[in-house]
Amino acid sequence: MRRVAIAERSNWRARAAEAGFRFHTIDGAPYWDETAYYAFTLRQIENDLEDPSAELHAMALDLVGDVVASEELMERLAIPAPFRDWIAESWRRRDPHLYGRLDFAYDGNGPARLYELNYDTPTSLYEASFFQWQWLEDQRNRGALPQQADQFNSLHEALVERFAELSAQLPPPLYFSAVGASEEDQGTVAYLRDCAAQAGLHGAAIAIEDIGLSADGRFTDLDDVVIGSLFKLYPLEDLMREEFGAALPGSGVRLLEPAWKAVLSNKGILPLLWQRHRGHPNLLEAHFDNGSALPAGWVRKPLHSREGANVAMHMSDGRWQESEGPYAGPCIVQAFHPLPAFDGNYPLVGSWVVGDRACGIGVREDDSRITRDSARFLPHAIVDDAPAGNTRIYV
């Protein structure tokens, strides 16, 4: 694994405009960054990322049944009591799921280490699936990458296939929803809606704040049409806390991601994975926080934090780093395992699972050891003979 400098495509902004990729720059700062790419060998992809992703995904699914059958575990995960039966029933019905992302610390040597699961509202999908593949094709065509260069990326095909499989399991009408003012979330939802349409599954778009509630407790669109199925790029834990949340269990709406994903999108799944698979090479030791002082060599994360918010990191050498954010409540502690540093850049590898198949990666890098919502997305390539790049160091 190397970070390799490469010339930008002179027309990449025009290519982004043509493709409807409008969030390549966020708040004036670059989000899409193609001044470098991460080079992997095929062995690294297959042995260190693809196979472990599939294994960890199966291990996580295997825990869901135990959690939903246990009031004690539901309590440990801070799942509100009024929603526990609804979540358990969603699992018993095996309500279908679409996708998820596992985030790894990986340096090209030794096992990738799981930081967390993003299994409810994973983003960076469009850029991982479509735009970085377009980058690869363009760079091969202009001779900047060898013709045999490849990517671990069958995301688009997998999404279309998965939507085709889901078409008979989602009661109509289907809607795709996110916060109306979030350009990134709206872009992700538009891409997924297009993938569904390519599979013959058509759905309407609606902002999450425009969804209403009928007198009989059904969720409706702006024309008072009852919503049968809802893809929502919006945290389920937030929905459960909001005004209409109490209506979820009785509404009859089929959610995508399903309600049982509340178990896997919760960082409490990490200590549960460790308890069952202690010593697994891809897991970091993790426990539920008991409120004591955070010792050196450990990281504290709230159960429901996102985008690196409210993380406290007490490094092995005694240094501290903390991130701000809006999340409070119960936490877990996880063994500190540093991201590699490539010339001051800290990459986090997001490994995508569609259905139950690992089918692609995306790399986000930050100037900080904590990957925040300001992190940049860099493309990757499988190039066994890539030019020499930056050597990783640990700091």
Automatic annotation (TrEMBL):
Alphabetical keyword list: ATP-binding, Ligase, Magnesium, Metal-binding, Nucleotide-binding
**GO MF terms held by the record:** ATP binding; ligase activity; metal ion binding
Q: Which InterPro entries match?
A: GSPS_pre-ATP-grasp-like_dom, PreATP-grasp_dom_sf
Q: State the Pfam families in the record.
A: GSP_synth
Q: What region holds the Glutathionylspermidine synthase pre-ATP-grasp-like domain?
A: 12-382
SUPFAM superfamilies reported for this sequence: Glutathione synthetase ATP-binding domain-like, PreATP-grasp domain
Q: What is this protein called?
A: Glutathionylspermidine synthetase
> Which species is this record about?
Stenotrophomonas acidaminiphila
